[in-house]
Write a structure and sequence with these properties.
globular; about 375 residues; 15 helices; mainly alpha
Length: about 375
């Protein structure tokens, strides 16, 4: 079946285009004057080595059967895999899929696919959902897939209300924990078909048939390595292996979910809609400022683990700049926003950001 043609939204820039021009000029000057590459440096390459190494070391210890008699150690090693997988997703895969890890596309593609495949996910779907739809049309209902939880929750005031949304402040956290589990099971197939219907696969230079074959092979390989092989090799009841695998996904998914959501679904951010001409009033850069928020900027350990994604504003304005530079350029962005009278949404702590997100869940569920 032939693909449709995706109808992109246009951003008008009548009055506020100067902010985007100015902030880009100033950030570019920062890198030029300091003779710094916008790509990742030793700080990210340390993570490229350490985080996957911890993941594979934990899985390797599991597969040795040394700890099969000690279920506490057995489950703990799966939790180590979960924490390192989330960290690798934040700090390695995210930069790589944005082309910000290396100047070589092959290197970016390799590390992006490596980490995402370890979570059971397909790279092409993630790039369309995140790079194309979320980054371009942030918080625009019907375009930004990140605020479309499939009718289970309500992430935009423009989405229809359902009676059970009043409880989403309670059950949302459970569904956040299903994030990587859904990648490993059903979500990729649903997304691939949806993106085919929207005509979005063309922009990635691929076809539905080609990606479907790759997806099936990926899922077979993934389940063979992380489910079938442990069941065949380990001296542990298969039920424990399945439960440990599920627990690994739940922990990893929960970590990812609670970091991404407080950056956009909060009371301070806006949710614009396109007009009948498929146009959103305002410059794209200003749109990112109005729909995005930073949090916990002074916690360097937290920022290290989440790959600088607590500096979401800088990341959304400059998605092709590695996260290792976010802290430095945030000073430029914040000062420029103040100069032009544009909000710079910021929560001082991560706990405060989560509480703010919970307020929005409650507000949208009422």
């Amino acid at each position: 079946m032939a693909e449709a043609t995706f109808e992109a939204i246009k951003f008008t820039s009548v009055e506020d285009k100067d902010f985007g021009v100015t902030v880009r000029k100033r950030v570019n000057e920062y890198f030029k004057s300091n003779k710094i590459s916008k790509l990742g440096d030793y700080r990210i390459w340390t993570k490229v080595v350490v985080m996957p190494l911890v993941y594979f070391l934990a899985f390797g210890l599991i597969m040795t059967n040394w700890f099969s008699g000690n279920l506490l150690i057995f489950y703990s090693l799966w939790m180590v895999m979960a924490i390192s997988l989330s960290g690798a997703g934040f700090a390695i895969m995210h930069d790589a899929c944005h082309g910000a890890l290396s100047k070589k596309r092959s290197v970016n593609d390799f590390f992006g696919a490596l980490v995402l495949n370890l979570a059971g996910g397909a790279t092409i779907n993630w790039k369309i959902q995140h790079n194309v739809l979320h980054h371009t049309y942030t918080n625009i209902d019907g375009f930004d897939d990140d605020i479309d939880p499939g009718g289970i929750m309500r992430f935009s005031p423009h989405q229809p209300q359902k009676w059970f949304y009043r409880f989403q402040i309670v059950y949302a956290w459970f569904f956040y924990a299903l994030l990587t589990f859904s990648w490993a099971t059903y979500k990729d197939f649903l997304q691939l078909d949806r993106y085919r219907k929207k005509g979005l696969l063309k922009g990635q230079g691929s076809t539905f048939g080609k990606e479907l074959v790759k997806l099936i092979i990926l899922k077979i390989a993934y389940y063979s390595v992380f489910i079938a092989l442990p069941i065949l090799v380990l001296d542990v009841a298969w039920g424990h292996i399945v439960v440990a695998w599920l627990s690994m996904h739940f922990v990893s998914g929960f970590i990812l979910g609670i970091v991404f959501q407080p950056a956009h679904v909060i009371p301070e951010t806006e949710y614009p809609l396109p007009d009948k001409n498929n146009t959103v009033e305002g410059d794209w850069a200003k749109h990112q400022m109005l729909t995005t928020a930073n949090f916990s900027p002074n916690n360097r350990l937290f920022s290290w683990y989440v790959g600088g994604l607590n500096f979401q504003i800088e990341h959304h304005l400059f998605p092709n700049i590695s996260h290792v530079h976010h802290r430095s350029i945030s000073k430029i962005v914040k000062a420029t926003a103040k100069e032009f009278g544009i909000p710079y949404n910021l929560q001082p702590t991560f706990i405060g950001a989560l509480a703010n997100h919970a307020k929005m869940l409650y507000k949208l569920g009422k």
